[in-house]
Write a structure and sequence with these properties.
By secondary structure, this protein is an all-alpha fold. The chain has a single domain, classed as Hypothetical protein af1432. Helices cover 60% and strands 0% of the residues. Bound molecules: fe (ii) ion (FE2) (2 copies). The site of one fe (ii) ion has 5 residues, from helix 2.
C-alpha cells in the first residue's frame, strides 16, 4: 500500500493566513481521532510545535497557532482511515480553504511515506518532532516515574537499543534532525520537559 501523495502543492495561496479556530480544530480532532494513545501523541506534537514557534522562532500568536494546528492535525486521519493517511486530512483542509502552509507541513511529516519534502522551518520541525516525540513518550511509559528525572543520556541509550520501539526508524530521526539543522541532543533536551506537561 502506498501513501504517496504524488503532488507537492497544496491548497490555494489566496487562503494564506486562513486557519481553523481552536474550537473547530478540537472538534475535528475529537471526531476523527478516537484512539487515546494517538490523541496523546498528536497533542504532544502540537504542544512542541507551539513551544518551538514561540520560544525559538519568536513568532506571533497567530503563527504559533498555525504551528500548533499543524501538529494537532498531522495524524488526524491515521486512526480511522490509515490507507488514506495524509491524503484525507489534506483534502478536508483544502475544502475548508485553510492556509496552504498547514497542508504542506502535514504532507511533509514523513517524506519517505508521502513523497513530499519538508521545505520551510515549520515543515522541518514537524518532521523532526514526530517520531522522536513518540519514542520519548514510549520511554516515559516504561520508567517507574515517567518523565521525572528523564535525561538526554537515557533517551540516547534507548535510541541505540534497537529492540526498544523497534518500529521507530533511527535513520529517520537523525535525518529529520539534520534537515532541521539541530543537534539531536538539543532536540531531545527541548522535547523532554515540554512534552512532560502533556500526558494522558
Ligand atoms: Fe503520520
Ligand atoms: Fe505522528
Amino acid at each position: 500500500m502506498s501513501l504517496l501523495l504524488n503532488r507537492s502543492a497544496f491548497g490555494n495561496p489566496v487562503n494564506k493566513g486562513n486557519l481553523l479556530t481552536r474550537e473547530s480544530a478540537v472538534q475535528l480532532f475529537q471526531e476523527w481521532v478516537l484512539n487515546p494513545k494517538l490523541q496523546v501523541h498528536m497533542l504532544q506534537v502540537a504542544h512542541l510545535m507551539k513551544c518551538w514557534a514561540k520560544e525559538t522562532e519568536a513568532l506571533d500568536e497567530q503563527q504559533q497557532w498555525m504551528w500548533e494546528l499543524s501538529g494537532l492535525l498531522h495524524d488526524a486521519d491515521w486512526d480511522q482511515w490509515p490507507d488514506l493517511h495524509c491524503k484525507k486530512i489534506i483534502e478536508h483542509l483544502e475544502e475548508l480553504q485553510i492556509d496552504p502552509d498547514v497542508m504542506h507541513a502535514i504532507a511533509s511529516h514523513g517524506p519517505n511515506h508521502f513523497g513530499v519534502e519538508p521545505v520551510n522551518k515549520m515543515d522541518k520541525m514537524l518532521f523532526a518532532f514526530d517520531e522522536l516525540s513518540g519514542l520519548i513518550h514510549a520511554y516515559s511509559l516504561m520508567r517507574p516515574n515517567g518523565y521525572e528525572g528523564m535525561d538526554v543520556k537515557g533517551v540516547k541509550k534507548r535510541l541505540k537499543e534497537k529492540s526498544f520501539a523497534a518500529n521507530v526508524s533511527r535513520e529517520e530521526i537523525q535525518d529529520a534532525a539534520n534537515r532541521a539543522n539541530i543537534a539531536l541532543d538539543d532536540l531531545i533536551a527541548f522535547i523532554i520537559p515540554r512534552q512532560a506537561t502533556v500526558t494522558a
